[in-house]
């Protein structure tokens, strides 16, 4: 089988990594939104933010 139990510390580490990743994506997406002179972040802003970081959907 698979892993039945994972150390509790892994959750804290994963949460920290995910937080940094999301902060970067949101920062990029908000920048695209501001450059387009809009106040609403669109899905395409997020797609472009991911693409700018070398990640695609």
Automatic annotation (TrEMBL):
SUPFAM superfamilies, per database record: Histone-fold
Family from the record: Belongs to the histone H4 family.
Keyword annotations of the record: Chromosome, DNA-binding, Nucleosome core, Nucleus
SMART domains registered for this protein in UniProt: H4
Molecular function in Gene Ontology: DNA binding; protein heterodimerization activity; structural constituent of chromatin
Organism name: Tetranychus truncatus
Stated name of the protein: Histone H4
InterPro entries xref list: Histone-fold, Histone_H4
Principal location class: nucleus
Quaternary data: The nucleosome is a histone octamer containing two molecules each of H2A, H2B, H3 and H4 assembled in one H3-H4 heterotetramer and two H2A-H2B heterodimers. The octamer wraps approximately 147 bp of DNA.
């Amino acid at each position: 089988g698979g892993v039945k139990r994972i150390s509790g510390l892994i959750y804290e580490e994963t949460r920290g990594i995910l937080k940094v990743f999301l902060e970067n994506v949101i920062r990029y997406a908000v920048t695209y939104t501001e450059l387009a002179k809009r106040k609403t972040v669109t899905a395409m802003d997020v797609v472009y933010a991911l693409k700018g970081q070398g990640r695609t959907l």
